[in-house]
Write a structure and sequence with these properties.
Elements: H1 21-40, H2 44-62, H3 71-91
Amino acid sequence: ILLSMHLLSFERYAEIYSMTMNDLYTFALQHKENANKFFGEKHYLQAFRLYHRSLCYLLNLIDEEPSDEHAEHLERCNQLALTIYSNMAACQ
């Protein structure tokens, strides 16, 4: 059986380095939640990969120079990063 697909449209997301803080956090959170599903099903390799991708989004935020305006947001990102690191260790 030969299967072919034709792409009708494609919307490319912004490059990771040009995303807003909210977008980076949202993407990181979505990937973490998807990874949690894989972890719950004992698919540890897939979960680890999604946790890693989630962490990549966060690391772009954590390196930011803290300002009063972003301090609270960066704290949420740091807390999420700690959770992701813990989850990655559990996958190992």
